[in-house]
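User: Structure with zinc ion, tokens only please.
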Amino acid sequence: MKGQRVVCPHCGEQAQLVDGSLIYPFRPDLHARHFYLCAPCNAWVGCHSGTTKPLGVLADAETRQARIQAHDVFDPIWKTGRLTRTEAYAWLAAELRIDREQCHISMFGTELCRQAVRVCERYWAQQKVTTRSGRSTFLTRHVPPQAPRRSLGSMFA
Ligand SMILES: [Zn+2]
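Assistant:
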């Protein structure tokens, strides 16, 4: 399996091309995917589907935290039924100008996470409803805070 030269941004060493079984042992559906891994930093990044082209920069724990933040602002768009999950991901992919099948927050680098948060915040800012009295009001998110996700597998949406 040949890969590109991908350097870990956290330590400067060259990352290793591995398959998904090493990263997500309990997600057989991801085992055929390629990842670049820096084991000492516990940092990795996924690849564009069917390629060894990285989706972004290797993510360490901090980046994975950014992905959780992106999920927290994105997921309520479909969890509250405003859009279906499929529609929401199609919308996000269009907003981020990436292919739908590459639109997985858990494969995003920090920059895509930041962009996703931005477009989702904008989405929520535009969620105006008209009350019975005819006044416009802004809907606020009403999603119970989630417990920290410890299982990496569950982060992959
Ligand atoms: Zn590293």
